[in-house]
Amino acid sequence: RSEKLDTFRTMFDLRKQARQLENELDLKLVSFSKLCTSYSSSRDGRRGDSSSDTTPLLNNSTQDRMFETMSVEIEQLLAKLTGVNDKMAEYTSTPAVTSLNAALMHTLQRHRDILQDYTHEFHKTKANFLAIREREDLLGSVRKDIETYKSGSGVNNRRTELFLKEHEHLRNSDRLMDDTISIAMATKENMTSQRGLLKSIQSRVNTLANRFPAINNLIQRINLRKRRDSLILGGVIGICTVLLLLYAFH
């Protein structure tokens, strides 16, 4: 009988501790949620007013420290509540409380459900806070880069413009060089083809001349006549020129 009373007292103390821890967790989670909401609001305020960057930065730094502190405290409370629930589960399975096992199991299940709800709420709020902080830190870094770029945009824009013009000139020069090389290559190929064609014609003429001696003799006579005509024409032009000079000087 005394063992049974001791077990009931222990169960009563454990339930009391569980309720106390649950109340503390409830208050902590409410404060934790408000902290995350105020953190997001302060970030939104900083985006809306770029002239007040100093104060929100300090507030957000303080909120970050508070977030870490409260996260540790809530995790400790959750661990304590888990330990209390485990102890209640051990006493529930003892033979001394077998007659009240159903009622105790119902109470234990209720405390476990509360612990599960608090744990889920804590992790959800923490994940939302970390996501907001990561997103805002990224946006802040982008805004800082944009402001840095704007502060030196005068000189940078001029340099960028000069670089772009120089780059365009180089591209035009490269294009002209490519066009010139393409024309030269096409001309070379054309001259090579013409040279081959002339060689082919000459070889055919030589072949015909070798095959038909009469044609070869005729070609030679034609060439001799052309040379003779050229000599006669040159002589006539020379004589006429001499006569004109003599007439001019006399």
TrEMBL record:
UniProtKB keywords: ER-Golgi transport, Golgi apparatus, Membrane, Protein transport, Transmembrane, Transmembrane helix, Transport
Pfam name, any one: V-SNARE_C
PANTHER family referenced in this protein's UniProt entry, alphabetically: GOLGI SNAP RECEPTOR COMPLEX MEMBER 1, GOS-28 SNARE- RELATED
Natural source organism: Esox lucius (Northern pike)
Self-association state and partner proteins as the record states: Component of several multiprotein Golgi SNARE complexes.
Family named by the database record: Belongs to the GOSR1 family.
Membrane-traversing stretches: 231-249
One Gene Ontology cellular component: Golgi medial cisterna
UniProt membrane topology term: Single-pass type IV membrane protein
Name listed for the protein in its UniProt record: Golgi SNAP receptor complex member 1
